[in-house]
Design brief:
alpha+beta; Antioxidant, Horf6, Chain A, domain 2; three-stranded antiparallel β-sheet; elongated; binds benzoic acid; Peroxiredoxin_TDXH; antioxidant; oxidoreductase
């Protein structure tokens, strides 16, 4: 145990360039992130093919793929399994599994084979004190310039909330497009937070601006309607 805790696990961080790799996937070879220039990407790992939580996640993500694609976001999965296991699992999902009203689900996004763990190690997806041979449920949100913008990790036992992943991709794009921040539990249509005042003068001005709602000089929000956000995100 002590030995495991002493291991240094390298993990990319928010703001870092996404580590580059070439890989074999269920949709052919990919060169990452170069092949995804101009798109947002969610690169995510799952512990193993033919396991129940992962199956529920893949069915959910595949069912929502078009929604993510419309927000200029592509999906790329990974596990420490070989290509033939991936193919067999995805065929089984399509042909046999019915879950929560989803059936005949086709997974069209690429699923990386990473039997050597090369990619998983680059992205800190192996967390040995959780499991040394399976990736945890890692989620990397990477912007069109190849920069990591959000990272979320879940343990093996906890299936992800895919509505939350969609909320994150919309919130990141809204923040970039409108130069704002998004408060706790924000959804499109909720008020957004404007940046901190840079001077005493601007602190005073914003307190007096009728379009801005200041709880205090450092905590100011403004309206940003849902259509304005979604039109900008979905039209790009
Ligand atoms: C699952 O997806 O069901 C699972 C995978 C690895 C460990 C525990 C659960």
């Amino acid at each position: 145990m002590e030995e495991q805790l002493e291991q240094v696990i390298s993990m990319p961080r928010i703001g870092d360039a996404a580590p580059a790799f070439k890989a074999v996937t269920t949709q052919g070879d990919i060169n990452f992130p170069a092949d995804y220039k101009d798109s947002w990407v969610i690169l995510f790992s799952h512990p193993a093919d033919f396991t129940p939580v992962c199956t529920s996640e893949f069915m959910t993500f595949a069912t929502m793929e078009e929604k993510f694609n419309k927000a200029n976001c592509k999906l790329v999965g990974l596990s420490i399994d070989g290509l033939y296991s991936h193919i067999a699992w995805l065929r089984t999902i399509k042909e046999k599994i019915e879950y929560k009203g989803m059936k005949n689900v086709e997974v069209n996004f690429p699923l990386i084979e990473d039997i050597t763990m090369e990619v998983a190690k680059k992205y800190g997806m192996i967390q040995p004190n959780e499991d040394s041979t399976k990736a945890v449920r890692a989620v990397f949100f990477i912007d069109p310039k190849g920069i990591i913008r959000t990272i979320i990790y879940y343990p093996l036992s906890l299936g992800r909330n895919f509505d939350e992943l969609y909320r994150v991709i919309i919130a990141l794009q809204a923040a970039d497009e409108f130069g704002v921040a998004t408060p706790a539990d924000w959804y499109p249509g909720d008020d957004v937070i404007i940046g901190p005042a840079g001077s005493c003068g601007s602190a005073k001005d914003r307190m007096e601006d009728g379009d801005i709602d200041c709880k205090d000089w450092f905590f100011c929000t403004k309206k940003l309607d849902k259509d304005t956000v979604m039109d900008r995100v979905l039209k790009k």
